[in-house]
Specification:
Rossmann fold; 3-stranded parallel beta sheet; alpha/beta; 13 helices; 2 domains
């Protein structure tokens, strides 16, 4: 549907020079006209769920803030990261409402439990945008995310293709390491992956991973190896790159000479290194710039009293939410050059470190 176009995060940070600080950014509304009192700055509050996943602080936040400043120099940004603590996020949202936030952009730690917070905002006529994770149980302005079921389908298909290529599909079992049970996106990834893998490969062990924690994923993989036996595991379906890294650490520790294919998501730099050197089979590249900038555009429109039409709707069990759903892109070693490098998601220097230089040359990355 679209082509991911991602400038280096450094460019986004440059746009923010002098604007960021501490827990948020601020801007004045400018001088008053004709001696009239200055109007208070419009306030847009952004809430991100955690910092264990690299993307949130490295990409989502600076890209969102840069786009808001581009579109609304007088807007004030109230930023908070909940560090995977639902109670902390509740306090952050309530504080932003008290501070006079005009729009909330919320990536919920527990998307099934934040309806009361959204209701507080609605009572004060503050529109809410669900960012990345679908909030259930209440109506709100917009949902901006990726086609999450499609992400799972791509992961499942990539793993199945890798197993077929190795001739191991029917010779063992796979381990499935899903994301946080409080994140509805995780259920979508699982649904998509299972739609491809069910009936085609045996599942030896399956885990939901609190907080999307790489450490917990490593422990889960260690449990699976102990239960199934090292030689019985032919593949690993990991829902993201951080957990893939944990699973790979467990397999290395267990003495694997050749790692089975393992999936991921988010195109973390460490994962790109692993993909090029053959430790990880693939990742899902998400156009975070498009997601962050679309959310910023909608937030600025809402503070200006506008309600842009959305191309889709998504049911959250209570209401049909106007939605912008972006396409994910699967990336294997042979696709890094034409996606990650071409879109300048990372520079060649960032990717092609000394340890990865030979693998870069093999894949035409210079």
């Amino acid at each position: 549907m679209h082509r991911a176009v991602m400038a280096p995060v450094a460019a986004a940070i440059m746009l923010l020079a002098g604007c960021a600080g501490g827990g948020g950014t601020t801007a004045s509304a400018g001088p008053s006209a004709a001696g009239q009192p200055a109007q208070p700055a419009k306030k847009i509050a952004l809430f991100l769920p955690e910092s264990k996943t690299t993307r949130y602080e490295a990409f989502d936040r600076p890209l969102f803030e840069a786009k808001v400043k581009e579109l609304c120099a007088a807007c004030e940004i109230l930023y908070s990261n909940a560090d995977q603590d639902a109670a902390k996020q509740q306090q952050q949202v309530e504080a932003a409402i008290t501070q006079g936030a005009n729009v909330l952009v919320l990536d919920a730690v527990d998307a099934a439990a934040v309806a009361p917070l959204v209701n507080q905002a609605k009572q004060r006529q503050i529109p809410v945008i669900a960012y990345d994770r679908l909030i259930s149980g209440i109506d709100y302005a917009y949902y901006v995310s990726f086609n999450n079921v499609r992400v799972g389908e791509m992961q499942g298909q990539a793993l199945l293709d890798a197993l077929d290529a190795r001739g191991t599909t029917a010779k063992g079992e796979i381990v499935m390491i899903h994301g946080s049970p409080t994140d509805p996106s995780s259920a979508d990834y699982k649904k998509g992956a299972k739609s491809v893998l069910d009936g085609k490969v045996a599942v030896g062990r399956e885990f939901d991973t609190p907080d999307w924690s790489p450490d917990k994923a490593q422990q889960q993989m260690e449990q699976a190896i102990t239960a199934l036996g090292r030689d019985k595991i032919v593949g690993v379906l990991s829902a993201n790159d951080g957990m893939a890294g944990g699973a790979i650490a467990a397999m290395k520790r267990a003495g694997y000479k050749t790692l089975p294919p393992i999936t991921g998501q988010d195109a973390e730099l460490a994962a790109i290194h692993r993909i090029l050197t053959g430790e990880q089979h693939m990742t899902i590249y998400l156009n975070i710039r498009a997601e962050a900038e679309k959310s910023a555009e909608l937030a600025v429109a809402l503070v200006n009293g506008q309600s842009p039409a959305a191309p889709a709707t998504v049911s959250n069990g209570t209401a049909d939410i106007p939605a912008f759903l972006l396409d994910p892109i699967p990336v294997t070693a042979d696709k890094v050059k034409d996606t990650i490098v071409k879109d300048e998601f990372y520079t060649v220097d960032q990717i092609c470190t000394a340890e990865v230089k030979a693998a870069c040359e093999k894949n035409g990355i210079r």
